[in-house]
Design brief:
The structure holds three protein chains of three kinds. By secondary structure, chain B is α/β, with parallel strands linked by helices. Chain B contains ten helices and twelve strands. In chain B, the strands form three sheets. Chain B has a six-stranded mixed beta sheet. In chain B, strands 11-10-9-12 form a four-stranded mixed beta sheet, sandwiched between helices. Chain B has a two-stranded antiparallel sheet with strand order 1-2. In chain C, strands 1-2-5 form a three-stranded antiparallel beta sheet, with no helix packed on it. Chain C has one domain. The chains are: A alpha/beta, B alpha/beta, C alpha+beta. At the A-B interface, strand 3, helix 1, helix 2, helix 3 and helix 5 of A face helix 1, strand 1, helix 2, helix 5 and helix 7 of B. Strand 11 of chain B pairs parallel with strand 1 of chain C. The structure holds iron/sulfur cluster (2 copies).
Chain lengths: 259, 341, 97
């Protein structure tokens, strides 16, 4: 039996195809303006990758902010549910999931069975999401992948006062003018983001183990900053952390299809 | 039924990710297991928005009432409002407006304060030493070295607006380069309820600048252009400037003319500002100060949403803060003199 | 005077509203010590009245500062469980979120 999980995020659509034989496709697609058409294309590509025909697909479950645009009359689930299911399958010790995506941040507390106990979201303000770091990297004229790396070389903690992405851009520019090393500025940006994400997650009560998912989990600077802010020795990071929502959706689809 | 997770997720680590973009044909790259696909997204969306642009370029101004003679005045006071973008100075003779100026704030607050005062007094022979009481206000208020006292811009704005528009003013909106204030005051210009938002760029002059920068339209043309639409479009749905910008780009790409995008953006800003005003309660008369007062596209829409029109003043509304500070200085000096005699 | 400290941003409205007319008669200012984060301080306002206010350093991040007092699952309940709101017998302190 073959099922699909789709995560229609603000910046990327992720698709996971699953069958009793395991995962057979992981596809990521950057959509254009037409979300519905992009989503259809993403699903088609995933089917091609897994060598499956559309009619073999038993069920589709979609999550993410754009989930209503998913093709094929899918069942819709919220992001916390999908995150919880996806992470518990990969890292069963997880009790708190922190998901930082392009346009939102989320803290989810889960049971050992992957059920959601409680969650807190930070959305619609770029300062609490990955967009903040992306924008700061641009101001520093750094590629996002270097941006995290370079923060690990920081020698001092410079404060960032601005709480808004737009104002922080000017603050970064004046720090550059004041000859502050880019590594220090980068660390300040990561610390600021981590403290906002941490504060949000504290609302659900942080219980170990804590896992980080979403695109920013690839950023070593952010991972370190978050560990520092939460005083954690270890932060679990699954493989392909940006696909956890889609995996969760696929697992839910499978569950629904067999029952 | 309990799922057999290990079986279902087998090959999770090893199976490669395939990445595509919707508008390009085919696959752009395939990443092996464990490689940073986050990096790819960064590179793809890496179009620069960077460049921080010039602020509201209102010209520097000054004015003096030469029919008045400062040598005959019993009390000379001044107020200085050092804002994040521009600074104003106001000089009063016995509590009456004598001279004022508005200059751009430089990198140093003390210098900007002095520059503003000198600009106001440039066509007179009055000098700083002859002004016994100066009150500083605004974001750089603690850095006005010759100020005897500092007072918050909220209190100063209310008092200044009360002088400019009269005792009937109850609601004041001040939208500056980097903040937005909503003030409710009594007939004497004393603040009864206020809020100030300087955390978020949305709803400040800065939010407009980002749009002006994106569309390459001079800031002062945005208002008039936005009123050229025949039918009012729905407002931009994102409050956040960062997301609203993305939204504006999307609207342009989908074929909206520039005026329509501007109208949509101005309406969103007006809705946002009226939400702030409603939090403190809107009561007539209504007065608008700060840079936003010059953006007719936003002002007209605020008036329409609130159903009341803003009161006009013969005086330039940008000096409200400095004027209020000077009035405070006048009252404080008077009190001091009374104390002595 | 009703002083609203805080902000509105894309994610919502976060204001602590203080009715400072009560502060003049209040002797002990229990709100100051009640807050675990040290958000409040007594100031003399522009009209020379004593007033409780939110410290400058917290005004742009109240949503984050107060997050430990506002567990996600409780936020729909009465705001009375907040230490600051509870501490003031005059109920001069209100939260908008
Ligand atoms: S403009 Fe700044 S503070 Fe406002 S919502 Fe966007 S990032 Fe947040
Ligand atoms: S909610 Fe808690 S942290 Fe926030 S002001 Fe009140 S007591 Fe302080």
């Amino acid at each position: 039996m073959v099922v699909a999980g789709m995560d229609l995020g603000a910046k990327a659509i992720k698709v996971v195809i699953l069958s009793e034989k395991g995962v057979s496709a992981k596809v990521k697609l950057f959509p254009d303006l037409d979300m519905a058409q992009s989503a259809r294309k993403a699903l088609e590509e995933a089917l091609v990758q897994s060598g499956t025909e559309l009619h073999e697909l038993k069920r589709i479950v979609a999550t993410g902010t754009g989930r209503s645009a998913a093709p094929g009359k899918p069942a819709l689930v919220t992001e916390p549910l999908a995150d919880a299911k996806g992470i518990i399958a990969l890292l069963p010790l997880t009790r708190t999931v922190i998901d930082v995506g392009a346009e939102e941040g989320r803290g989810v507390k889960i049971t050992p069975q992957g059920e959601v106990v409680d969650f807190a979201v930070n959305e619609k303000c770029a300062a609490g999401s990955g967009a903040f770091m992306e924008s700061m990297a641009r101001s520093l004229e750094l590629k996002i992948e270097d941006f995290g790396e370079i923060s690990l070389k920081a020698t001092q903690a410079v404060p960032m006062n601005a709480q808004c992405t737009v104002f922080a851009e000017s603050e970064v520019v004046s720090l550059i003018h004041a000859n502050t090393p880019k590594s220090d500025i980068s660390r300040a940006v990561h610390d600021a983001t981590a403290s906002r994400i941490a504060a949000m997650t504290r609302r659900v009560g942080i219980e170990k183990e804590v896992a980080l998912i979403g695109g920013v989990a690839y950023n070593p600077g952010f991972v370190e900053a978050l560990k520092r802010t939460l005083s954690l020795e270890t932060l679990l990071i699954p493989d392909h952390p940006d696909f956890i929502g889609a995996l969760g959706a696929a697992l839910i689809a499978y569950e629904q299809a067999v029952n | 039924m309990i799922l057999d997770f290990p079986q279902l997720i087998s090959q999770w680590e090893t199976l490669p990710v395939h990445v595509f973009t919707a508008h390009e044909k085919g696959e752009i790259l395939t990443i092996g297991a464990g490689t940073a696909s986050g990096a790819v997204s960064g590179a793809i969306q890496g179009t620069a928005s960077g460049a921080v642009t010039e602020h509201w370029k209102w010209p520097e101004q000054s004015n003096v009432d030469l029919s008045m003679d400062w040598k005959k005045a019993a009390r000379i006071t001044a107020g200085i409002d050092v804002g994040s973008v521009s600074s104003q100075a106001v000089v009063l003779l016995d509590g009456k407006l004598y001279a004022w100026s508005s200059v751009r704030t430089g990198s140093s607050s003390p210098d900007s304060a002095l520059k503003a005062l000198n600009q106001a007094l440039k066509n007179t022979d009055l000098t700083l030493e002859k002004i016994p009481y100066v009150v500083g206000t605004g974001y750089g208020r603690v850095n006005v070295p010759f100020a005897k006292k500092t007072i918050t811009e909220i209190a100063c704005h209310a008092r200044g607006a009360n002088y400019m528009g009269g005792g009937t003013i109850r609601t004041i909106l001040d939208m500056g380069g980097q903040d937005c204030k909503a003030i409710h005051c009594d007939e004497k210009g004393k603040v009864t309820n206020f809020l100030m938002n300087d955390k978020c760029a949305a709803g400040t002059g800065r939010g407009m600048e980002v749009l002006a920068d994106l569309l390459r339209i001079p800031i002062q043309e945005i208002g008039p252009l936005s009123l050229k639409v025949e039918e009012e479009p729905p407002p931009v749905s994102s409050v956040c400037v960062v997301f609203a910008k993305t939204e504006a780009i999307g609207l342009l790409k989908s074929g909206w003319p520039v005026e329509k995008v501007l109208a949509s953006y101005c309406l969103a800003m007006a809705e946002r500002v009226t939400a702030l005003l409603n939090r403190i309660g809107v009561e007539k008369d209504f007065f608008i100060t700060g840079g936003i007062a010059k953006n007719i596209g936003v002002v007209k829409r605020i008036e329409r949403i609130l159903g009341i029109s803003a009161l006009n003043s013969a005086l330039d509304s940008q000096i409200a803060g400095a004027l209020g500070a000077a009035l405070f200085a006048n009252a404080l000096l008077e009190k001091e003199e009374r104390g002595k005699s | 005077m009703i002083a609203n400290y805080g902000y509105t941003d894309g994610s919502g409205e976060y204001y602590i509203s203080i009715n400072t007319s009560f502060c003049a008669e209040c002797q002990t200012h229990p709100c100051i010590s009640a807050c675990p984060q040290g958000v409040f301080e007594m100031i003399t306002d522009d009209y020379d009245e004593p007033a409780c206010s939110v410290k400058d350093s917290f005004r742009k991040k109240l949503n984050y500062t107060c997050s430990t007092c506002k567990p996600a699952r409780k936020s729909s309940e009465s705001p009375l469980f907040l230490p600051c709101v509870q501490a003031c017998v005059n109920r001069a302190i209100k939260h908008t979120w």
